[in-house]
Amino acid sequence: MSFTLAIVGRPNVGKSTLFNRLVGKRLALVDDQPGVTRDLREGSARLGDLKFTIIDTAGLEMATDESLEGRMRMLTERAVQMADACLFLIDARSGVLPADEIFADILRKKNAHVILAANKAEGKAGEAGLMEAYSLGLGEPIGLSAEHGEGMSDLALALRPLITQAEEEAEDYTPEVDVDLPDDEDEDGEVEVEYIPPTRSKPLQIAVVGRPNAGKSTLINKILGEDRLLTGPEAGITRDAISVMTEWSGTPMRIFDTAGMRKKAKVQDKLEKLSVSDGLRAVKFAEVVVVLLDVDIPFEQQDLRIADLAEREGRAVVLAVNKWDLEGDKQDKLKKLKEQFGRLLPQLRGAPLITVSALTGRGLERLHDAIVEAHQVWNRRIGTSALNRWLVGMLEQHPPPAPQGKRIKLRYITQVKARPPGFVVMASHPDLLPASYSRYLVNGLREDFDMPGTPIRLFMRSQN
Ligand code: GDP
Ligand code: GDP
User: Which family is this sequence assigned to (predicted)?
Assistant: First the structure.
């Protein structure tokens, strides 16, 4: 999971404006219809070379019985809990108001990592407010203008150490440069004890996402079949998640039910937008994301966005083309679908594409098998010696370039994590290695170790 930053502060200080600026077009998940928005928005943010997840707490208009203050408090507390750090915004033009003090208190009590910023600080009108912000006792405030894009490099400066620290803490372990074979490897270098199949207490978590009317409910109901709801729909597996537990062809699975959620919300319009935010939560929940496409309108913008998000979040992805029963020329259609897939979702290279009919049940066995296989691949661990033998071959076949006359030596590779598979390569001058070479290695790993449909992470580390 990526580093998560929550933007908190009283209404009107510019939280949404900043959110939109940082998220850009990557997830324009703006939905201002009262009562429809879930109260916390999330998006993938980018600031210079920093990438992180951002949560916006601006959804205070939700109709509830509580007081504004109560709702602010609750939302903020939730956001703080979910986030690695908080960006606390005040309005530089109005200075520090009593409501700001309330937020400062919450943040202090929760012991949150806080970056304090005075927004609307463009021009002279903001100067006094910026100075006043010191009085909150949360350190030096950054002057920002979310609207005009000012202060963004100061924000990046404040964020970078927090992100670095969080990443270091999240790292499973630092690889030891040690070419001795670990004990659990056989001669081929494959790790023997690798995949623990899903159990009732640790079911395979899947999410079925896709545009409205793609057939998500139909598919989930078909899967549940006679076994219907071993534990019933329940909230709270992850925050707000609604999931159902079932055993699908012998595999214990927990299915995140976005369709059911929508029905629960009793929302008839704006289905399009809502399903995007549902999808976002679903992706966070899932180990394997099933992107359900409608055969009549496959690879819609929305499908592409959610598939891309799943990849970036490191989830295994299976594409399922639904309503296959309606298709006349199946051969021809399949060819077209494969072509579109390769062109529109190159980042998911090798992910399975399964044709199904949720209505008749055809293809569901194959879908099940593809999900289980994707899960296995996602969990895969490859032995260090096999990896290093492979690396030697890759280097011989296609040596790394020597930019600026410096030879880049790739010395050693090891897998540092699974779910999804992550590898570290020790190299001299890793910063000089072109992205194309990393892609060559990733594609090679994918093909030679048979890891279709899973994101593969490759980290370069410096070692001379
Ligand atoms: P939120 O309620 O905290 O999400 O605040 P909004 O993002 O909706 O912004 C509230 C108002 O402040 C809007 O009218 C914005 O256009 C305005 N605003 C946001 N950022 C800035 C800024 O940097 N400078 C100025 N002058 N106005 C801003
Ligand atoms: P959701 O919005 O993604 O949950 O979609 P639904 O499950 O509600 O399905 C939308 C419509 O498509 C319904 O009328 C379904 O009967 C229909 N549908 C779903 N799956 C199939 C299928 O495999 N074949 C056909 N012909 N229709 C389907």
Answer: Belongs to the TRAFAC class TrmE-Era-EngA-EngB-Septin-like GTPase superfamily. EngA (Der) GTPase family.
Cα–Cα nearest to 356, from 246, 214, 247: 214
Number of separate helices (H) and strands (E) present in the chain:
13, 16
Residue 89 Cα to ligand 1 middle (Å): 11
Of 17-21, 63-67, 207-211, 458-462, the least confident = 63-67
**Two tokens at 185?**
């490897």
Rounded to an integer, what distance in angstroms lies between the CA atom of residue 412 and that of residue 429? 14
The predicted pLDDT at position 391 comes to 95
Q: Which amino acid is at 281?
A: R
- % of the chain beyond a pLDDT of 90: 37
Q: Could you report the predicted ipTM of this complex, rounded to two decimals? A: 0.54
Where does 228-314 have alpha helices with state H?
Answer: 258-265, 271-285, 301-312
Separation of CA 12 and ligand 1 centre (Å): 6
| Buried-state track 11-41, b at ≥16 Cβ within 10 A, e below 16 | eebbbbbbbbbbbeebbebebeeeebbbbbb
Residue 106: the pLDDT is 87
> Relative to the alpha carbon of 75, which ligand is closest?
1
The gap between the terminal CA atoms of the chain, to the nearest Å, is: 30
**How far is ligand 1, taken at its centre, from the CA of residue 17, in Å?**
6
Nearest Cα to Cα of residue 384 among 446, 456, 449: 449
Q: Kindly report the CA angle at 265 between 259 and 267, in degrees rounded to 5?
A: 90
Ligand 1 and 381: CB distance under 6 A: no
Which pTM value belongs to this model?
A: 0.56
Which pLDDT belongs to residue 91?
95
Residue nearest to atom 26 of ligand 2 (CA): 323
User: How open is the CA angle 171-176-180, to the nearest 5 degrees?
Assistant: 140
Instruction: Kindly write down the DSSP assignment for every residue of 293-354, as one continuous string.
Output: EETTSTT-HHHHHHHHHHHHTT-EEEEEEE-GGG-S-HHHHHHHHHHHHHHH-GGGTT--EE
Q: Report the pLDDT value the prediction gives residue 151, as an integer from 0 to 100.
A: 94
* Nearest protein Cα to ligand 1, atom 18: 14
Name the closest ligand to CA 219: 2
Compute CA distances 94 → 99, 128, 144, 179, whole Å.
12, 9, 14, 61
Provide mean pLDDT across the span 120-134: 88
Distance in angstroms (rounded) separating the CA atoms of residues 219 and 356:
9
The token duo for 54 is 């951002």
